[in-house]
Fold this protein.
Amino acid sequence: AYEPEEPGEGRMNVCSNQIACRFDCLAVTLEMPFKDCLSHLDPEFGWSPSRAKMLGASVLDALGYVHPYLREEGEFWVNFKEEDKYVRPTEKY
């Protein structure tokens, strides 16, 4: 789990931080949640083209949700519904 960094304090050797800083835009790192590989395939839960499409669609849903807030000033997140508030990562998940 990664701790959130303060604005302007991100490590510039992380691609998403570099892109966000350089182009003043939202940048994300998408880590693949699939743990199978050619030598250890998991046909039930592993990588497949259809799962890749679903993952891409879910990322677009999230980006669409935050889009209206990207240039907001102030603490806009305090008005999020309870189920949409930030949850700090823990060792449980």
About this structure: The first helix runs from residue 15 to 23. The mean pLDDT is 83. The chain is about 30% helix and 0% strand. The helical segments are 15-23, 49-66.
